[in-house]
Each structure stands twice: as structure tokens, then as C-alpha cells.
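Contributing new records

If you add data, match the layout below exactly. Sequence lines come first and carry their own label; structure lines follow with theirs. Keep one chain per record. Anything else will be rejected by the validation script.
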Amino acid sequence: GAYHGDTIGTMSIGSIGRFKNLYSPLLFPVVWTSVPCAVPDQPERESEQLEHWTGELERLFELHHETLAGVVIEPLVQAAAGIKVQADQFLRRVWGLCRRFDVLLIADEIAVGFGRTGTLFACEQEGVAPDLLILSKGLTGGYLPLAATLVTDEIYDAFLGAPAAGRTFFHGHTYTGNPLACAAALASLRLIEADHVLRNASRLAVTLAEELAPLKRHPQVREIRQKGTMVGVEISRAGEAYPPEMRIGHQVTLACRRRGVILRNIADVIVLMPAPAMPESLVTELCQVVCESVAEVAV
């Protein structure tokens, strides 16, 4: 379920076929591994998965570490996979293997950054310091397009030197460093601190869990996955997926729209990602609409 974008490079490291198959002749080779998922209320099962997939990852490092350019991971949550929450401490295990085998760790926090998982950056929750940290979305609050790549001093210094040394990192595009977008980012960062957005995000996470709790009793709700303000409500029929042609997830979003709420679905997973700065009353309304819409459609 890996997804990191739609350039040739990011499509190469993605694993979702419908996003990349058309371009497969252009993509470079990648080694993938599965990610252990969080298993709420079943710590023993989650621990078993963590040990199994950490072992598989270690085996891949032993086989490929000399040719790996880096490890790319979306910390704590795979958003485009349907809000798949990772097992606790998996990110730190990955970081440990990267340091042991001298491989760069690249943390894609475009979706999970700026408070969505409960901390400013998801990596903080497991004490991980990646070599490269990729940011966007919440960086400007969504008002203007901007992305940033943060790197360690070691990586920065590798491209620093006199022109004759030939160390310049020749990569950029026409709109790099757009001043208006950068001003929006600075304003957003100031508001995150001044308005105590991280504190609000913590409250919203509790509200989401409480208001969506009735859906756990719905016979057609297979699972509710949540990390901070990121939630995925998976719809199924008796534990089995609905026929694709029914487009149940899409039908639920249409029912939400009739009630004045615009949401997206990923197949039959209803995705909720309210802004960490959103008022609690609106999140309560959002959850009520989702509950009503699921009850209407998933029968």
C-alpha cells in the first residue's frame, strides 16, 4: 500500500499498481516489504507481527544493503493504503536497521506531518531522527502549494563546496522557493504555536474516537483504524469485501455530501482527516454525518 507521489521517482517506490502500471517501463527497481499493522486490543498478535516483519526487513537489508539508495517510509500511518496504522515501535526498528547497515532513512511526512498523528512530526513519537524529512500539505495549511525537504548536516555538506568541485545538487524547478507560498508557510507555523494547534489535535483525536464508537457495533463496519486525527472506516459485508461494482465507499461519500460534508473514500474505506486546527463542534458534526451515511448505505 505504499504511495509517495506521481513523479517517475515516487511512482517507482510506490506499490499501488493502478497509480503506476502505465509507466512501468520508465520506473527503476525497488525492494518492498510489508508493514506490521496495529492490532487494537490484541497486543500479543501485534507483537508477533512486529517481530515477523522486522525479521523479514532485516533479511532484505542483509541481501540488498550495498545497493540500497535509501529506505522510504510514511511514518506511523500509510494514508493512501486506507489509513493503515503501523505496529508500535516498527518505525524505530526500521531506523535502527538503517543505522546498522548505513542506509539513509527518508521519512515521508507529507500526509502525517504537522499534528495529524498527535505530534508535530510523526517521527517524534518513536524518537526517530530520519536522514531526510519530507514535508508539505499542513506546511501551508493547504492554502498554497509548497513542499520542503529537510536533511541532516552530513547530507547538506555533501553538496557544499566550490563550483569547481562539482558537488552542486542540480535539481530544481521553476517555482522553487515561491515567496508567497513561503510566507503562507511561515504564517501557518506561527499559528500552530500561537493557537496551540497540537493541543487541539489531541482533543479532536478523543472526540473522533468517542463519536465514531457507535460504528463499531454496525454489522457492516469491519474495522475503524485511527491514529490521532487520521481515521479510516472500512466497510464490508460479513467480513467480506463488497463487489467492486457496488462502489459502497463512494456511495457513503455521496450520502455524506447530501448532508453537507465532503469526504473521500479509498475503495470501501471512508477517510476522515480533519485539520488539527478544526473546532471540536465541526468534528462532532462530521462524525455524526458519517455514522448516518454508513447506516443509510451499508445495509
